[in-house]
Amino acid sequence: MHTVYKISANDQNVVEEFNARPIGHHSPALQRVLNVIRGQPVRDKYVLICTKPHQEWTLGKLTGERGKPVRLLKEQVFTSVEDAEREVFRRRWERHTGTKG
């Protein structure tokens, strides 16, 4: 997916909005940012893996190669999907912008 929108320093305010409500309706500004960072190349893209239904999540990285399994990153296990979503957002934001989210 290619987008014309570019994240700028003015977009830093959406980080707080996402952290306050990672799941649900988002403002147009946050949705634009999410579209950009979710549209990053697949190789080494951070994703969530549900390891116990409705109870536990961990991070993974996509390989970018069809048929290759997701690499599980077992450094953190989340018992809240909201906390897991915040971590994926933080890592994608940092990778995309080079700044802490």
Write a structural description.
Helices cover 36% and strands 21% of the residues. It has 101 residues and is an alpha+beta fold. It has one domain (9-97). A three-stranded antiparallel β-sheet has the order 1-2-3, with helices on one face. The longest helix is centred in the C-terminal third of the chain and has 17 residues, at 81-97. The protein is globular. It starts with 12 loop residues before the first helix and ends with a helix.
Keywords for this entry:
101 residues; alpha+beta; 3-stranded antiparallel beta sheet; globular
Strand percent estimate: 15-25%
Mean pLDDT: 90
Shape: globular
Structural class: alpha+beta
Query: What is the count of structural domains?
Result: 1
Please give the alpha-carbon distance between the first and last residues. Answer: 23 Å
Strand order of the largest sheet: 1-2-3
Q: Which sequence of SSEs, written as H and E, runs from N to C?
A: HHEEEH
Helix content: 25-40%
Briefly summarize what is shown.
This protein has 101 residues and is an alpha+beta fold. The chain has three helices and three strands, in the order ααβββα.
Secondary structure layout:
Layout: H1 13-20, H2 28-38, E1 46-52, E2 56-61, E3 71-78, H3 81-97
Antiparallel strand pairs: 1-2, 2-3
